[in-house]
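Hello support,

Our group uses your service weekly, and this is the first time we've seen a run hang past the timeout. The protein is S-adenosyl-L-methionine-dependent methyltransferase. I'm not sure whether the cause is the sequence or the server load. Input pasted verbatim:
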Amino acid sequence: MMSRLWQPKSLIRALHSSCTRHTLHPFLETASSGSVAHAITYSQQISEQEPEPFRLVREQAISFDAHEARKMISPLQGSFMAQMVRAARAENVLELGCYLGYSALWLAHGLGNDKGHVWTCERDMRVADHAAKHVAQAGLLQRISVVPEPADKVLRDWDLADRRLLDFIFIDANKSGYRGYYDLIMDRGLLSQGGLIVVDNVLFHGQVPQVALGKQMADEGKGLRIAKKLLDFNQHVAQDSRTVQTLLPVFDGLLLVRRA
Ligand SMILES: C[S@@+](CC[C@H](N)C(=O)[O-])C[C@H]1O[C@@H](n2cnc3c(N)ncnc32)[C@H](O)[C@@H]1O
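Update from on-call engineer: The timeout came from a worker crash unrelated to the input. Re-ran successfully.
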């Protein structure tokens, strides 16, 4: 299982410390790490299973670069993302941050049988090239377009007349760009009425709430800079009256944002 599913107990405790009611299942508060791992495995077993072509792509991504493959969403998060696309009845879906295409497969999985399309952008041309091959291999060429361009360019160039409004946007590119991407989406009016933005990694390994509390971080380098950017981003969204948001302390922190 990918490390994104792992939630350190210190994070779980931090999430509960100021709550009068539990936000996660109370069992997770006191469970041993083995029990938590088992709960995650069990959740994975009960959830929708990863389609075989997706599993092959995930395994190829791990063989391609095992370290970088940790960037990908897990199969459990994939199933969750597909559910979100279905629940939003999304037709036009945009992903910022494709990597090798794994999450795009799950987003497309959530589309209706005969309608809808996923555009997924990746600034690294070599990686985008591999992603396009994975999409073809999974038989989803008709449903997914890999756009080998930076996210801000894609948002600036998004042609509303041509491609219509976006019903679902998954933000999973460089964390320092999140605020700019969000502003472009909202200022350009790219999101459909009732459309949903899902933003990944907004707790950033639990570091964002720690920084919010003014805690000293072990990692004072790049990690802290990213956590501060995400702290600023989360606050920015929370103060924007154009949207309503929920931050879910699942996976690496998922922010769900809807047009108000
Ligand atoms: C976390 S990974 C995406 C993982 C993918 N969503 C998945 O779960 O399978 C982030 C990707 O965004 C790409 N990226 C970073 N900055 C970007 C930008 N400004 N525009 C487009 N892609 C970017 C990186 O090259 C990397 O491949």
